[in-house]
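Support request from a user on the community tier.

User writes: "When I paste my structure tokens into the form, the page sometimes reloads and wipes my input. The last time it worked, I copied everything first. Here is what I submitted, just in case something in the input itself triggers the reload:"
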């Protein structure tokens, strides 16, 4: 497949997933968007706000998984409307590993 063919396929696939179609498919299912973040204070608020504005009716939960940021990533994400969890709290028995 050539790169032109790939982009045509990708565009046709993306155009098949309108809000209306997604809402009808979703039905009673729940949908969460999870965003991993590490030291993203400067951008996470905009990302959370953009996702909420674009997909607000479709998603049931917007989560930021904070990877022990040293800045205000968690606070900014919370202020923007995300539910924030720390990687240290998810499976404390496994410890925290960078990467």
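"...and here is what came back when it finally went through:"
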């Amino acid at each position: 497949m050539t790169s032109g063919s790939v982009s045509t396929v990708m565009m046709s696939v993306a155009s098949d997933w309108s809000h209306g179609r997604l809402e009808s498919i979703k039905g009673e299912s729940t949908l969460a968007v999870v965003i991993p973040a590490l030291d993203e204070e400067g951008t996470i608020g905009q990302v959370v706000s953009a996702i909420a504005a674009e997909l607000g009716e479709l998603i049931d939960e917007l989560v930021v998984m904070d990877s022990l940021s040293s800045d205000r990533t968690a606070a900014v994400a919370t202020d923007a409307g995300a539910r924030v969890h720390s990687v240290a709290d998810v499976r404390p028995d496994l410890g925290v590993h960078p990467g």
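Agent notes: The reload is a front-end session timeout and is unrelated to the input. The first helix runs from residue 3 to 15. The chain is about 45% helix and 15% strand. Escalated to web team.
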